[in-house]
Q: What sequence folds into this?
């Protein structure tokens, strides 16, 4: 009964907090609601545990504080995803501990819900993931142009199929020493799966950024053009997201930010991506004096580098800047902004759902490439350890 009263108290407090927030962004409101609910649950659990003179909650709380500290220091870094995932894992263990210790109804409900999810995953698991990847690959094949970058879900599905066959059939007929050597494949895959999970987690968290409507510049990152002169639906979504922010700020602050359209002219394009975006924005009724072109860049790194040079020439002492790109891309773009000492957060434009798995995989490969030395060191250490184990196993046989 006490836990119910405490929970309702915190629920009411955070309910009032959420609905005092003035926001037109539905995603932001959902996030605030989830935050309010989570804080209500967590506060109740901590209070009940404290009454039992137990303080195991300090473990997940410590991981969350570490996440918050590093995220506040620098939002766009992979370690933030690791800290948050450690928080989630320790919080799950804490729920089990809490249920055993207090036998409270809140912990029991959470464990039952998470248990059902675990049963569903165990029942469907890898096979369902493989089938979904094949299904997604077919959709992308039909709707997008044929290119290696659009075949990533298919490649991953084929690799997972091989792993499934290997783990259930092939490994059983191999000599022990050879099976140890071949363990390099599933172990290295598991390593990159963990890295991908950290990347995906922080990418999703980063999308919750809600910059205030007090910006001086919005950088819109370029992408390929249709027929060499028109914005594609993908690029249009980036421009539309920037224009949406521009309009909201103009209503609230009566002064819109300058729009920096950033993107050079590719070898197969008739005009620069910046010019194509400008043409699109003018058709939407944006005044030409609020548009600045950056038409020299060929990469996201250069988008940030050359846009910063334009911003540095302004007469504003400490210009406030954000950038617009697709939701799967803004985390890596934020890293490039940091590399150029450009203090700018990203706002996310929506992407077609069928394209997201392929897009996130492509971003992840780009992230791995950026940190290839670190991953190469791990893989070399892993292969060295497995080689030693295989050698020892082979000697013991004889």
A:
């Amino acid at each position: 009964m006490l836990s119910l009263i405490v929970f309702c108290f915190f629920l009411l407090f955070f309910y009032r907090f959420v609905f005092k927030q003035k926001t037109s962004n539905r995603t932001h409101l959902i996030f605030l609601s989830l935050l309010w609910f989570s804080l209500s649950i967590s506060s109740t659990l901590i209070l009940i545990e404290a009454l039992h003179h137990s303080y195991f909650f300090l473990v997940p709380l410590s991981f969350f504080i570490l996440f918050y500290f590093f995220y506040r220091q620098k939002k766009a870094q992979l370690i933030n995803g690791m800290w948050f995932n450690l928080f989630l894992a320790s919080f799950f263990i804490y729920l089990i501990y809490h249920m055993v210790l207090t036998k409270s109804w809140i912990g029991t409900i959470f464990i039952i819900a998470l248990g059902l999810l675990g049963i569903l995953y165990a029942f469907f698991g890898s096979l369902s993931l493989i089938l979904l990847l094949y299904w997604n690959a077919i959709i992308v094949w039909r709707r997008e142009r044929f290119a290696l970058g659009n075949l990533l879900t298919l490649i991953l599905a084929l690799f997972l199929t091989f792993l499934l066959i290997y783990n259930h059939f092939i490994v059983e007929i191999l000599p022990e020493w050879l099976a140890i050597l071949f363990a390099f494949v599933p172990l290295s895959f598991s390593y990159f799966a963990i890295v991908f999970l950290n990347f995906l987690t922080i990418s999703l968290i980063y999308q919750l950024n809600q910059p205030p409507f007090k910006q001086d510049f919005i950088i819109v990152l370029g992408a390929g053009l249709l027929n060499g002169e028109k914005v594609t639906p993908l690029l249009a979504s980036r421009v539309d997201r920037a224009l949406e922010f521009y309009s909201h700020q103009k209503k609230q602050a009566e002064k819109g930010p300058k729009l920096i359209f950033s993107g050079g002219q590719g070898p197969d394009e008739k005009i620069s991506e910046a010019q194509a975006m400008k043409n699109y924005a003018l058709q939407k009724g944006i005044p030409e004096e609020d548009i600045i072109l950056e038409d020299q860049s060929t990469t996201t790194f250069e988008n940030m580098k050359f846009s910063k040079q334009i911003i540095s020439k302004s007469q504003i002492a400490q210009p406030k800047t954000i950038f617009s790109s697709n939701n799967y891309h803004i985390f890596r773009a934020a890293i490039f902004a940091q590399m150029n000492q450009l203090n700018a957060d990203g706002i996310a434009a929506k992407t077609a759902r069928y394209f997201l798995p392929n897009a996130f995989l492509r971003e992840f490969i780009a992230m791995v490439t950026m940190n290839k030395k670190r991953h190469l060191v791990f893989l070399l250490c892993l292969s060295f350890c497995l080689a030693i184990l295989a050698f020892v196993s082979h000697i013991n046989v004889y």
In short: The chain has 14 helices and seven strands. Residues 105-143 form the longest helix (39 residues). The first strand starts at residue 217 and ends at 221. The beta strands are 217-221, 225-226, 230-231, 258-262, 291-294, 321-326, 344-349.
